[in-house]
Amino acid sequence: MEEPHDVTLFDVAADKRGILPPREFLRSFGHVDVPRLLYHGNANEPFLDLVSDGTLEGMTFEGVVCKGGLVSPGRPLMFKWKNWAWLDRLRGLCQGDERLFAELA
Fold it and tell me: Domain for residue 31, yes or no?
């Protein structure tokens, strides 16, 4: 059985400026289907623990995408942080194929 999928706008590259920083993105596109802002602040250890444990209110089962200030023109800091339960489920689906797990995680 196929899972339902939705299309959600989460990044916009604007001309030569590159990807819009988070605040500008929300200001410009917050009126359409974009991911909900779950946290504002530094991605510190207590925040990352909430994501890892799957206890951050509003997060998906997989985890979160974090975005911050620009690391260079047009390149905001961006990274994913995964929920341990999701990683465990993915390991099971990969059935010991660590190469496949690394590609999907």
Answer: yes
